Amino acid sequence: MQLSWILVDDDPHFLKHIKDSFCIFSKNTLNPPKILAATNVTDALLLVQNELPSLIVTDIQMPQVDGFQFLRFINRKYPDIPKVVVSGQLSEKTEALCLQVGVALTISKPHDAQEILSLFRKLQQLTKQQAGNQLLPAALTHPSPSASPLTTGKEALMRVTGKIIRRADSLVVNSILQKVKSSIKPVLQGINPMIASTARDNEMVSKAARVTGLIKKIPREANTSDQMSASNGKSDSINNPKKDTNNNSRGFSGVLPQINLAELVQMLSLSSKSSVLEISSESIAGCIYIQDGIIIHAQTTDQIGESAVYTLLNLEGGQFELLDYTPPSQCSVKLGTQHLLIEAARLMDECDRKRMGNQPEAYPSTIQTTRVTSTISVLEERSVVLYESNFTAKETTQNQADQIGETDCSSALLNVDQDLEELLICNHEGKVTYHHGPSDPAQRVDLLEFFSSKSKQVTERSLGYLYYIHFQGAEMESLITLGNDSSLFARTKSRSLPINKILHYAKNSLCLTPTN
Amino acid sequence: MPYTNELAPEMIKICENLCRSTAIIEVSYCPPKKGAWVFKEGKMDYIPSPPNLWRSLADAFPVLQLHRLESNRMIWVLDHGSIGLIRAADGGSCGILTDKETSNESLQSWLDQCGNVLENLS
Fold first, then answer.
1. Which of A33, A311, B44, B119 is 20 to 30 A distant from A359 in Cα terms?
2. What interface predicted TM-score (ipTM) does this complex get?
């Protein structure tokens, strides 16, 4: 595959000069890159989308959309493409900003042929190293300096070998899949009618029919009416053969006695999927619309928005069905999904306490166990051991944190928050779900994204999961934990960061899984 | 070898001493501008350009500064070890990769030693 470089600069003369020079230099190379040029960010974005280049070289100061905005976008969408800034005015601040948006090299604009040649060689080396990184195992991605300049022959060999390996892998996987499919097919064909007949005989079906009658009362989008057009109180799953077939052919049905709805929503949120969760009990029915893992709308027969979410998530029992996503008529939920789940958990705790005569010690252990163990992996348990071994000196804080982890999510947040100057929690999409402090949350999200990209480089070194990053300065201390679902930034003014408390909060209340 | 003048004898001495500890897997020195010296298993290497983990981590300090989070010490706690970095006023930094058994106190004390040498150099 031919490599391609995209050069972006608003100065057409400079751009042409550089492009022509690069074309001349690249003639002498084994695998000459295709040099493409754009004088503005819009054209550059089009080129990037079409070409998927192996390198992007851009200027910073450009009219309309500047280089930073362009690089920020590229860094988010194509983090693996090496980015180089070639600018006439490079200051320390500019360089720091460049680093933040994932720039691999910052170079001053070349003035003569010698400098252009030097720039070309640097870019060539960077492209080779990037290609080497993609093909070689992690242990070989940090060559010694003497071995660093790969010859073009070696590079070409590596590319071919990589392709062969990938092709071989895909062939093996396909052949295994075919074998599995053919061996499973007769078994499935035997099982499906059995499931269908059992389901028909089951009392659950008649209950579902009654429940769907309740759900019908909720106004729905016109395009979903075919799915919900049950008549005479009969279930869609009985009347609509299409849906019935779907239910039998894909997905699972069953009872999840130890999983509450909040956990189910959290699972959907973690998987970033879009779906409509239809929930019903004997007293109430409703729907929660989840778009890309975020709750955007909820409705019951008499409630809408956040209150509907809390009501539905606090149901003690009932049935649910996951339907294909259809956009709701409105987006009634404004709060973030994490926030909603925390608040729902708090309300659930309150209800439990009232029921148990306001005795926290009599808190049903099964519910707590379910809430924690079902969402926290073994690795997180290991992380706690590590936190504890690293910070055994702070036993008092540890005990407090333990208590927090075992009681209440929202009170844990307050307990953590009151010790901090700043606390920010955001989800995997960079949406802020909680923020307290004087800083601009968008900037903190940028910082979390920056460290997220750094953490990938660190974990490539076979160092395992990243638990947290701790920063110490003369006048402040801060901490970052990066999870697959959410990330957290915390800061204190003085050197008194309650690390254990924050980590326990992140683990128990945010279910923050360490990144790998 | 490039940038030899940026690697002071004091720095070599402290890095070599630290490398003798069985708990320390790797020690690095990143000069203010670019590249990184890496001390590992009794060998010393200079990595001039990316990809270079130590340089990449050291480059996080100016980004923190940009966010008004001036820090001179950074600890990454991972499953299989910890990485500590300390930065001097001139932008030079020192990094230590330890095994997972090493306590936070030991890492902080090694960073203190490196910090003292770095401050004398800057």
1. A311
2. 0.91
Provide the token pair at B72: 């001179």
Report the chain A residue with the minimal C-alpha distance to residue B104: A390
Q: Nearest CA of chain A to the CA of B64: how many Å?
A: 8
Q: Which three-class secondary structure state does DSSP give residue B43? A: strand
Q: Tell me, yes or no, if B120 comes closer than 8 A to chain A by beta carbon.
A: no
Structure token pair of residue A390: 């690293």
Beta carbons of A513 and A380 less than 8 angstroms apart: yes
Helix axes A409-417, A395-406, angle to 10 degrees: 150
Cβ under 8 Å to B: A residues 64-83: 82
Contact A465, A515 (CB under 8 A): yes
Question: Most B CBs within 10 Å: which of A84, A85, A99, as the mutation test of the B interface?
Answer: A99
Residues in chain A predicted with pLDDT less than 70, given as ranges, are: 1, 131-258, 349-350, 352-418, 495, 509-516
- The domains of chain B are located at 4-121
Tens-place pLDDT, residues A167-217? 444 444 455 555 555 555 554 455 444 444 444 444 443 444 444 443 333
Give the per-residue pLDDT at A416. 66
Say whether the peptide bond before residue B51 is cis (omega within 30 degrees of 0).
Answer: yes
Subunit contact B71:A476, Cβ cutoff 8 A: yes
Question: Which domains does chain A show, CATH number per domain?
Answer: 4-150 (3.40.50.2300), 202-350 (no CATH), 376-509 (3.30.450.30)
- Paired tokens of A380: 């997180």
